[in-house]
Amino acid sequence: MPLTMAKQGETVTIRKITGKDEVRQHLAELGFVVDGEVTVVSELGGNLILQVKDSRIALDRAMANRIMF
Question: What does the pLDDT read at residue 27?
Fold first, then answer.
C-alpha cells in the first residue's frame, strides 16, 4: 500500500520505493530506505508531514505514492 494510505500517527515500515533511479536516490538521501520506519505526523490535502529518524519531512501526494509499506 502507498504511504498516502497510512493514518495520522501511524508508524509503518517501508517495503518498496518505486520510480526512476533519480527519484529513489533522492528519497534515500532524505532517509526513506527499505526497512526504515516512518511515522505520519499529519496529512493535509493528500500532502504528508513525516517523521523519519530525527527529521520531519514534507512530501507531496505524488512522492508519497511512490513509497510502499
Answer: 95
pLDDT beyond 90 at 46: no
The pLDDT, as a whole number, for residue 61 is 94
Asked whether 38 and 12 are in contact (CB, 8 A), the reply is: yes
Domain that holds residue 20: 3-68
63: helix, coil or strand?
A: helix
Q: Give the pLDDT of residue 38.
A: 97
CB 32 within 8 A of CB 52: yes
CATH number for the domain harbouring residue 8:
2.30.30.90
Q: Based on the structure, what is the number of domains in the chain?
A: 1
Cβ neighbours of 52 (radius 10 Å): 18
